[in-house]
Design a protein that fits this description.
Keywords: Metal-binding, Zinc, Zinc-finger. The chain is mostly helical. The chain is built from 10 helices and 11 strands. The protein has helices at residues 4-9, 54-58, 89-92, 94-97, 130-138, 191-195, 206-315, 319-324, 326-338, 356-364, and strands at residues 44-45, 51-52, 70-72, 79-81, 86-87, 119-121, 126-128, 147-149, 180-182, 187-189, 203-205.
Length: 367
């Protein structure tokens, strides 16, 4: 049966462009020095669920654990209060357990036969054998106690035994095994602890506590898996939206550039037409003016010649020559007087007219 995490993560390959997922082996490596964690390296579990070795944690400022100080996780950079950092119990016994499930043998503590315990009294916090269970149920003081078989649980069983080796003897009571879990103190306790300093605390057999927590955490894991799957779908949709937005942007850029090129082409065509019209009008005007200029130049030269010749003849002392040449001189003077000087035609200025504001408004409404 696949776990919710495996169903969500699949083969661990994220969508194109997404951040690569953390490698699975990172769970067994120090997030700071990337060395494999072992019990000798005293692994510590951060609140963000990343792990570091004791040496790397001790190298951080304030590693002694005073209030107000935090450790910056080298993997996710989350600020982890030093008071919330705990031992990584999953890696403390990794070398010895190798992930195997080993049951915790218990003996009956109510008789001297050291018989194998088959049940557990919740009120007395004692493992009992079958004989002691019968005696337990006959005595008036204990007949109302809740006695359950060691394999029995209030929630559906997840695994038939406690993962890893048996926790071992109680540090405070070496003759007792750590077979109970105090939920008030989040600590493993023995029968003597339950009857002593943890008397009024809610406790339950270790196997039941493990099963209960497995059930609770599995439900939360399933919910997180569903939420993570929805987050992945949203991320894919968002990435698809980003790609669509990029495609639309590129398409709009091409369309705008093509429109600008078309407008520039039309403007260039219109500009060439205007320049051609202006050139033709200007050439016609220049041709007419040049014809007038040539005619006036010829008339001017002829008149200047007649003026010079007539003036010289009048100033000459040869009167006879003047009389003999009078007809020619008179004829040229009359001819020169008959030359008409046409007035210059008023030349209008050629102007290029355009409404700059109208073009600006058109450009603003372009597109």
């Amino acid at each position: 049966m696949s776990s919710p995490l495996a169903a969500v993560l699949g083969n661990g390959l994220g969508p194109k462009g997404a951040e690569p997922p953390e490698p699975p082996e990172l769970l067994e490596l120090c997030g700071a020095c990337r060395q494999r964690l072992s019990p000798q390296r005293e692994p510590r579990l951060l609140p963000c669920l990343h792990s570091v070795c004791r040496q790397c944690l001790g190298a951080a400022p304030g590693a002694a654990g005073s209030d107000g100080q935090a450790f910056d996780c080298p993997v996710c950079h989350q600020q982890c209060p030093l008071g919330d950092i705990m031992e990584n119990f999953f890696l403390q016994d990794s070398g010895a357990s190798s992930g195997q499930l080993v049951p915790c043998p218990q003996s009956c503590t109510s008789c001297e036969d050291n018989a194998a315990a088959t049940s557990f009294c919740l009120e007395c916090a004692e493992p009992l054998c079958d004989t002691c269970v019968e005696a337990h149920q006959r005595v008036r003081y204990t007949r109302d106690h809740t006695v359950r078989a060691l394999g029995e649980s209030l929630s559906p069983p997840v695994t038939p035994c406690v993962p890893g080796p048996c926790p071992g003897p109680c540090p405070s009571h070496p003759s007792e095994q750590l077979a109970l879990f105090c939920s008030a103190c989040d600590a493993l306790t023995c029968r003597a602890c339950h009857l002593g300093s943890h008397r009024d605390h809610p406790s339950q057999p270790l196997e039941d506590a493990v099963r209960q927590q497995r059930s609770v955490l599995s439900a939360l894991l399933q919910r997180l898996g569903d939420k993570h799957a929805a987050l992945q779908r949203s991320t894919r949709e968002l990435r698809a939206g980003l790609r669509r937005a990029a495609d639309v942007q590129k398409r709009l850029q091409v369309e705008v550039k093509m429109a600008v090129l078309q407008v520039m082409k039309e403007l260039n065509r219109r500009g060439r037409a205007l320049l051609g019209d202006a050139q033709r009008v200007s050439d016609a005007r220049q041709q007419r003016l040049q014809c007038q200029h040539r005619a006036l130049s010829r008339a001017q030269r002829q008149q200047e010649h007649v003026l010079r010749f007539t003036t010289r003849a009048l100033d000459s002392p040869h009167g006879a020559a003047l009389l003999l040449s009078r007809r020619l001189i008179h004829s040229q003077l009359l001819r020169a007087l008959r030359v008409t000087v046409e007035p210059l035609e008023p030349q209008g200025d050629l102007k290029f007219q355009w409404d700059r504001l109208a073009w600006t408004r058109s450009a603003e409404s372009f597109g």
